[in-house]
Amino acid sequence: MAALPHDTHYRAVENLLYEWARAIDENRIEAICNLLLPDGRYTVTSRFNRDRGLPLAVIDAHGAAQLRDRIKSMRIANVYEPHHYRHILSGIQIVGEAGGCLEVRSNFLVVRTMDLDGDMAIYASGQVCDSVDVSGEQPRFRRREFIYDSRVIETLMVIPL
C-alpha cells in the first residue's frame, strides 16, 4: 500500500495537538503560546454560532501575543474558583492542505475538576479545526478553532480549551 501524501507529517501533527492539551492539563498554560505562530489565530465558538455564520466567539485571540496577555490576566487579575482540565482527543485526521499548511480535524472532550471539592463534570466537547504550518523545524498552529457542541458555557471560560 502506498503512503498517503500527509503520512510523513501525521505523527508530528498528532504530537502538536497532544502537547497543547497536555500543557493545559498540567497547568503549563503559557506554553501553548509557543505552539501558535506569532500571527496565528485561536478561537473558541459554539457550534450554534458557527453553523449560522455568527461572528461571536467566547475567545478570539489574533496572535500569540494576545493569547499570552489573556493567560497572564488569568494568572494575576481574574478571580475564579480554582479548577483544572483533562483533555481527551480523538479522530485526529489530516483532511487537506491549503496555503502551505495542513488542514486537521479532531474531536475533543474536556472534563473539569474543581480543586476545592473535587467535583468533576464534562465541561466541553466538540471539534477542532486546525491549520498547521509544517514548514519550520517544528509544526505550529496557524489557526486553532475550537467548536464546542453546547450552546452555553457553564459559568465562564477562564482557562483556554
From TrEMBL:
The keyword Transmembrane does not apply. InterPro entries: NTF2-like_dom_sf, Rng_hydr_dOase-bsu. One of its GO terms (molecular function) is anthranilate 1,2-dioxygenase (deaminating, decarboxylating) activity. Signal peptide: none annotated. The keyword Chaperone does not apply. Its EC number is 1.14.12.1. Pfam families: Ring_hydroxyl_B. SUPFAM superfamilies: NTF2-like. It comes from the Bacteria. Keywords: Dioxygenase, Oxidoreductase. Belongs to the bacterial ring-hydroxylating dioxygenase beta subunit family. This is Anthranilate 1,2-dioxygenase small subunit. It comes from Pigmentiphaga humi. The lineage of its organism: Bacteria, Pseudomonadati, Pseudomonadota, Betaproteobacteria, Burkholderiales.
